[in-house]
Amino acid sequence: MKPARPSRPKRLPLTLRRDPVAWERQRPTWREARPALIADALKRAQARPTGNWYVVGASRELRPDRPLARTVAGHEAVLWRDAEGRLVAGPGSCPHLGAPLRDSPVRCGTLVCHWHGLALNGTPFAGWEPWPAHDDGVLVWIRLDEVGAEEPTARPAVPGRPAAAGALTAVYTGVGVCEPDDIVANRLDPWHGAWFHPHSFVDLTVARTPGQADESDSFTVDVSFRAAGRVVVPVRAVFTAPGPRTVVMRIIEGEGQGSVVETHATPLGPDALGRPRTAVVEAVVATSERPGFAVARRAAPLLRPLIRAAAGRLWRDDLAYAERRWALRSSGGFPG
User: Fold this and answer.
1) At the N or C end, where does the chain have fewer CB atoms within 10 A?
2) Cα(57)–Cα(283) distance, integer angstroms
């Protein structure tokens, strides 16, 4: 008996919606999107350990001539690569007179303060102490034990994803007036997709919720991505929250099977009005078995801005959702 041949993907991943339903006539999902179900999923995510690790940004943002600077939970941070190419990180304030190291150049792996020339090579010096940092090939992380107050771990728990070398990767960053919980709660509400994002999603059905699954704390969603007009790309995706500031969407059936979208919520600190600000750092790690995907990977520099633009369009909506949620919570008016 000859061995069965592996199934090949369809020539085209596109499907024509034969009986499209108008936006206002689609099936309401508000009864299924039970506030208690979303709140329980969020509570379980909040209880999962992080090892005090926080996502800062994209690995590609690290440049040889200047540091990557962020504020995380009110702490100024700078990251750069030392002379051996190792990622180093630490406080973003010069220990001499407090100069903003974010504005200082990197020369041959050394960060040189532009106020008085204090040079930092990534090791403790003149009162400056490095922080643990990690580059997973797509995102860079720092460990802030004072902020997280958990048992620290040597490395962050990076979600499983396709190998970056064989994938198309892009990272989007946005900022909203809210807390990380509001970002995670947004992602743990898949029911809003076709209602709130009709420009991107149609025919969305939540096939399984955590309350219906014993083997995993996940949401399984059948949805079609809009391509053009009535042409769509149907997939099945699973949403999980491996930590209090992370939600992962993984395509398990359909075009791009195995592809991952990681959404990380990093607290920045209060704005001028004392309101919390949170950064959304979303990594798209796309893969495909199609022969043409190799061409797409070679065109990555052209495709990344398009992927970031698509993510940005969705996050304009979802940050409004998260900001509204925080505003209601902070005023005592949130009904969930």
Assistant:
1) N
2) 9
